[in-house]
């Protein structure tokens, strides 16, 4: 008996492989890779018990666990599932379709919008003033904005530096820049619990990583201890940047 293998079967296997790989990357970024590995091992044991060894009693127990486990996984990985759906919705082509249907145009940050941010970060770095700036792109950050104080001002170097001045009441939170405006300051960001983050990086870096894992925003960090400038973007750190590197990175996806 020959096994029939068509192009449709090949596409099916390819899509499943892509889904598993993307899930693996998502779990690795969120620090849940051990849980993902455990799920794969459980599924493998379930298939061996039910399909290969045909153990009816143990197989039925595993079947019940799998049926209940789907709901448990949705509850356990609700943040990862939300991030996956947000990533799909914020994809370049999906965003273009939404803008076409709604008639909204994408507001692209120009050089004159980015340079005040870069110069403010360089200035704060020299003075070792801690700062955390989040630049919104396709994915809206309205939930984050609501946690802080709304400013809604033009992007201005002096304003950015004054917000993060050590005696300012808003210097501990994050500033959100959206649609060519300083939208809010003193905002609270989700903190990443990824164990792979180096120990020497503080809470600002963990908060920047957290927002980069759940959105497509650039999160700029100015270290209060060293004055170095870093960026978290799509779950990855870019450390010890100079002015040219920071400008290049901020214009990369705009």
From TrEMBL:
The keyword Cell membrane applies. Keywords: ATP-binding, Cell membrane, Membrane, Nucleotide-binding, Nucleotidyltransferase, Transferase, Transmembrane, Transmembrane helix. SUPFAM superfamilies: YojJ-like (SSF143597). It is an enzyme of class 2 (transferase). It catalyses: 2 ATP = 3',3'-c-di-AMP + 2 diphosphate. One of its GO terms (molecular function) is diadenylate cyclase activity. The chain crosses the membrane at residues 6-24, 31-49. It holds the Pfam family CdaA_N. Residues 78-243 form the DAC domain. NCBIfam families: diadenylate cyclase CdaA. PANTHER family: DIADENYLATE CYCLASE. Catalyzes the condensation of 2 ATP molecules into cyclic di-AMP (c-di-AMP), a second messenger used to regulate differing processes in different bacteria. This is Diadenylate cyclase. It comes from Bacteroides fluxus YIT 12057. The lineage of its organism: Bacteria, Pseudomonadati, Bacteroidota, Bacteroidia, Bacteroidales. The gene is dacA.
